[in-house]
Amino acid sequence: MSTIDVQGVLQGLLQQVAASDTPREVLKAPEFKQMYGAIAILPAEERGAFGREVNQVKVTVEQAVEARENELESADVVALDVTAPWSVNGTKPQLLPTNQGTQHPLTKELDNVIDIFTRMGFDAIESRQIDDDHHMFGTLNFPEDHPARDGYDTFRTEEGFIPPAHTSTMQHRILKDGKAQLEAGGHIAAISYGRVFRNEDVDATHEHTFYQVEGVYVSKTANLGQMLGTLRSFFETYYGQTLRIKTQPAYFPFVEPGLEFAIEKPAAIGGKTGDWLEMLGCGMIHPNVLREAGIDPTQYRGFAWGGGVERLVMLKYGIEDLRHFEAGKLAFLRKFKS
Ligand code: DAH
Q1: Residues with CB under 6 A from ligand 1
Q2: CB 314 within 8 A of CB 264
Q3: How many CB atoms lie within 10 A of CB 271?
């Protein structure tokens, strides 16, 4: 027989968990080491039963830790009585103290992205979360029934509206709104950011809901060199270091030529030479897209790009699973508290 009073140890550990603000620490208590150590020195015929008892202690303590963590997460929220009569002059509802709240990492990083582009002279507008076929496809040079539409696995409402599958839906609006400015001798420079939706099977690298940022620049002399300089400058500012970049041809109906833009994964976050990461799609705006917005493509040229925000942020912080962003888990969100 072991001399350890396993049930007594269990009670002690459960008391520690119940009183702790960091209950997970109890799983590292020396008692576990002692109990597991004791298994090895027992006579062979007693080891099985004792081992099972010790394992049961571990499971029970783990369950208590989870219960305590959940209790701590909701501890400061006082349930509102939604049936109570409501009065303008009534007492204020009790809300979580503000020092408990954190900005969502995507909000924080999106602000960062917007900040960089506005400092470069771009206007920033939020994209729509419900749109139509005309802006999703028609104005972007996707002919009716063209197979390129299949690349965007969209949802549709019964009325035929579309939760947009990309922020390129904003291009036509940006171009139309900027036309007068362009004709007065200026240029169009805007980014559009927001939520987009795709009919995806969710896994570590695919979500049905995610964020994109789109950029549009039009002038009399816009060219690919300016586009690559703009994008490089953005990525180098965002990651705070110099980067190697590369492009390869890609097809998007709304640009020609169309390109994919990649950066070499920085050594500071474990990248090796030749570790290329594709970050976004881009190209020179197709004459049909300019024409559709009433802009004469023989007088003006433009470039555009669009890419996902989550990828940027995952790379910056080494986040391995895209699903963390929409999961609403406090343990993940609190890591970004500043
Ligand atoms: N909208 C494209 C997508 O979501 C990305 C994109 C590619 C945007 C090329 C652009 C562009 O503005 O020029 O797949």
Answers
A1: 166, 168, 214, 252, 255, 258, 281-283, 304-306
A2: no
A3: 17
Atom of ligand 1 nearest to the CA of 168: 1
Q: Which atom of ligand 1 is nearest to the CA of 216?
A: 12
What is the pTM for the complete model shown?
0.74
Q: For the packed helices 6-19 and 44-74, what is the interaxial angle rounded to 10 degrees? A: 10
Give the residue carrying structure tokens 């599958």: 165
Q: Which residue has the tokens 């970050």?
A: 279
Domains of the chain (ranges, CATH numbers): 1-101 (no CATH), 105-336 (3.30.930.10)
Question: CA-based angle 244:245:251, to the nearest 5?
Answer: 165
Q: At what angle do helices 309-317 and 105-119 cross, to 10 degrees?
A: 110
Pick the residue whose CA is nearest to atom 7 on ligand 1: 281
Render pLDDT for 220-269 as a digit per residue (tens, 0 to 9). Answer: 999 999 999 999 999 999 999 999 999 999 999 999 999 999 999 987 77
> What is the Cα–Cα distance from 95 to 74, expressed in whole angstroms?
12
